[in-house]
Amino acid sequence: MMDSKKAKLTLANGTTIDLPIIEGSLGKPAIDISALSENGYVTYDPGFMSTASCDSSITFIDGEKSILLHRGYPIEQLAEQCDFLDVSYLLLNGELPNESEKNAYVGEIKKHYLLHDQLNSVFKGFRRDAHPMAVMAAVVASKSAFYFDEMNVYNRNHRRLSANRLIAKVPSIAAWSYLYNLGRPFNYPRNDLGYAANFLNMLFSSPTQAYHLNPILVRAFERILILHADHEQNASTSTVRLVGSSGANPFACIAAGIASLWGPAHGGANEATLKMLQEIKNENRINEYIERAKDKTDSFRLMGFGHRVYRNKDPRAEIMRKTCHEVLSELGLENDSIFKLAMKLEKIALEDEYFVEKKLYPNVDFYSGIVMRALGIPNSMFTAVFALARTAGWIAHWNEMFLDDNLKIGRPRQIYKGKTQRNVPSGRNVSKY
Ligand code: CMC
Q: Which of 61, 203, 285, 382 is the most exposed, having the fewest neighbouring CB atoms within 10 Å of its CB?
């Protein structure tokens, strides 16, 4: 039962509990079940399908209406009218920066661009063929061994410093993870370039060869960063919050977020989408893969399709689709075989009853992989780029968590289904040393 202010829950023994209803500024109301455990019950919600883990003022998604807002601003307007540092400032501070705030913020980020020189040795401990995400997660975590000054997470200024350091340094860590893989020298960041251009330059230039920055391609990359900057309480952001709730070092929290993002059901989907397209290779084989995706005995899923929250179009996918056309036309790649295959696959899936009925639309990662490939970014770096962008969202959520007066260490409950209490059999041999 529910009235406008509270829900009533009647337990098996007849006890009725009043549960308060919490209303946000947008979206579904929530039933506050925190009093349940006092009455001897816990709730069960695998995958948190119906559970809000916190309140937040950063991002709002309406998956039915294809709406994504950051601090109230629609993603379409942010992608069109802002750059990535505008968006990262907005996520962290709640408002877009005015001109002087923007200049100060950009200056602050650039001040922290350089990595500690000793980090070279950390990179050199890895196998050359290690995946950039594995290297990135470990190197970001290793930064907690470099920065232990001004690390009181309950101090607003210390949190701000950590946020700026992370946003400034993650591009170099991502680029170096790849350069190490290739055996190429590490390129230093350049303060005369914007955030997106600086990353592309680190990735593609070499001491012997300058990288030509094409404004259309740089803008397309900037858009990838903006579209991936935040997406409320997804797996990696929830991971960052959970790790951070213990008061852990922020670099360790972001490293945990990177590890969570790497999975193919989450950030690994852009890499998995391109791999899938390369594997399908020929338009004649699309139907075979569509049938496999529908077959419940086959674990294969159509990568780049479906979303936990969007049960309608992913608004980011629409922007990425347009960007994809702009980039391919700029590069004269409209006839690129992978792109044509992707467009055909998209059309067939969108007309297929299974995908229509389950409301499975292409998500942002269906197109972002194609754009990144056209920009020359290798498959193995796709998720690293996602991590670079999402660092802004992660750190904004991490910061917001400490502004919450109700902050508690995250500690889900469980339904235990193991053995009931029993005794260890007597007469076991115990080794002495
Ligand atoms: N191909 C085939 N069937 C699918 C797919 C797919 N890509 N996605 C969902 N389904 C089916 C699923 O089998 C289930 O069918 P049934 O009801 O018969 O059991 C139904 O649709 C609902 O799926 P679900 O697994 O309950 O949905 P979920 O919210 O748990 O999963 C998802 C969401 C994104 C993990 C899933 O759609 C998926 O694995 N997609 C492919 C991977 C992908 O593209 N991930 C990127 C997400 S966007 C980036 C980000 O924001 O992280």
A: 285
Picking from 203, 199, 149, the residue whose alpha carbon sits closest to that of residue 181 is 203
Q: Are 319 and 223 in contact (CB under 8 A)?
A: yes
Ligand 1: centre distance to CA 360 (Å): 8
Residue in 305, 270, 303, 265 with CA at minimum distance from that of residue 388: 270
Span 92-105, pLDDT tens digits: 999 999 999 999 99
Q: Is 47 left (phi over 0), alpha (psi -120 to 50) or beta?
A: left
Q: pTM of the prediction? A: 0.92
Please give the Cα distance from 204 to 13 (Å, whole number): 67
Q: Three-class SS of residue 8? A: strand
Q: Give just the sign of the alpha carbon dihedral 364, 367, 371, 376.
A: positive
Overall size of the chain counted in residues? 433
335 token code pair: 């006839």
Residue nearest atom 49 in ligand 1 by C-alpha distance = 266
What tokens were used for 307? 């979303």
Half-sphere CA count of 11, side-chain side, radius 13 A: 14
Neighbour-count burial for 126-156, b at 16+ CB within 10 Å, e otherwise: beeebbbbebbbbbbbbbbeebeeeeebeee
Average pLDDT over residues 43-63: 95
Q: Does residue 369 carry a pLDDT above 80?
A: yes
* Residue 17, beta-bridge partner list: 9
184-211 in b/e form (b: 16+ CB < 10 A) is eeebebeeebbbbbbbbbbbbbeeeeee
- Work out the burial of residue 230: count CB atoms within 10 Å of its CB; fewer than 13 is exposed, 13-18 middle, 19 or more buried: buried
Rounded to the nearest 5 percent, the helix, strand and coil shares of the chain are 50, 5, 40
261 within 8 A of 229, measured Cβ to Cβ: no
The order of strands in the sheet holding 59-62 is: 59-62, 67-70, 73-74
Residue type, 180: Y
Cα 418 from Cα 197, distance rounded (Å): 54
- Looking from the CA of residue 231, the nearest atom of ligand 1 is 51
Find the residues whose C-beta lies inside 6 A of ligand 1: 231, 234, 265-267, 269, 293, 301-308, 358, 360, 363-365
Number of neighbours of residue 416 by Cβ within 10 angstroms: 7
